[in-house]
Write a structure and sequence with these properties.
This protein is of the alpha+beta class. The chain has one domain. It has 5 helices and 7 strands, in the order αβββαααββββα. It is globular.
C-alpha cells in the first residue's frame, strides 16, 4: 500500500491524486482536489455514515464522482466499459488503471477520515488465461468489524458510472472478465 499511498499528495492549497489511464498506467495525470471537491466527497461519504453497507453504497458514488472529476484533467470522459482493444489510447482505462485509481481514491477517503467501517486493502487480481479467464484487477476494501473484503470494480462501467461492489470471494468466483 505504500506505493499507492505516495500517489496521494497533500499540498498547501490542494490534494493531488495520481490518475492512471492509457492501459497499464501508461499515462498519469495529477488530479487536483481543492476544498470544493473535498467538500463534495465529504458530503457523499456522510450519506453512508450509518453502517458498513451504507458506506459501501457511498463509496460507489464517490468512485463515480472521482472518475467524472478526473476526466476534466485526464481527458477520459469517453472511457468505455470493459474494453480490451484500445491500449495506448490515453482516453481509455483498463482494469489496472481502474483498480489503481479506485485504490488511490479510497486512500484519500481514508486519509480524510471518511471511511468509518472499512480500511483500504491491497489490489487483487484473478485470471491467468490457463484458467480460461482474462487477467483482471480490482480495488479492495476490508470491513473493519468482520474482516470481509469487498471488491470495488469500475472496469465494466463507462466513465463516471456506478462501479460494482461485491464480496471479494464472489468477485473471484463469478465477477465479470
Amino acid at each position: 500500500m505504500r506505493l499507492q499511498s505516495q500517489s496521494v499528495r497533500v499540498l498547501r492549497d490542494r490534494i493531488e491524486v495520481e490518475y492512471c489511464h492509457g492501459f497499464g498506467c501508461f499515462a498519469v495525470t495529477a488530479v487536483p482536489f481543492k476544498d470544493a471537491e473535498i467538500a463534495e466527497l465529504t458530503q457523499i461519504m456522510q450519506a453512508g455514515a450509518g453502517s458498513a453497507a451504507e458506506e459501501r453504497e457511498a463509496v460507489k458514488q464517490a468512485v463515480a464522482y472521482f472518475e467524472r472529476h478526473a476526466a476534466k484533467f485526464a481527458g477520459t470522459g469517453t472511457d468505455i466499459a470493459g474494453n480490451y482493444t484500445l491500449g495506448g489510447d490515453t482516453s481509455q482505462l483498463d482494469c489496472v488503471d481502474e483498480a489503481r485509481n479506485s485504490t488511490r481514491l479510497l486512500i484519500l477517503l481514508e486519509k480524510k477520515g471518511l471511511l468509518r467501517y472499512h480500511r483500504v486493502a491491497k489490489i487483487e487480481g484473478r485470471g491467468n488465461f490457463i484458467d480460461t479467464r482474462y487477467p483482471h484487477n480490482t480495488a479492495v476494501l476490508q470491513e473493519k468489524a468482520t474482516g470481509v473484503k469487498w471488491s470495488v470494480d469500475s472496469w465494466m462501467r463507462h466513465n463516471g458510472d456506478i462501479p460494482e461492489v461485491m464480496t471479494l470471494k464472489r468477485w473471484f468466483k463469478e465477477g465479470y472478465s
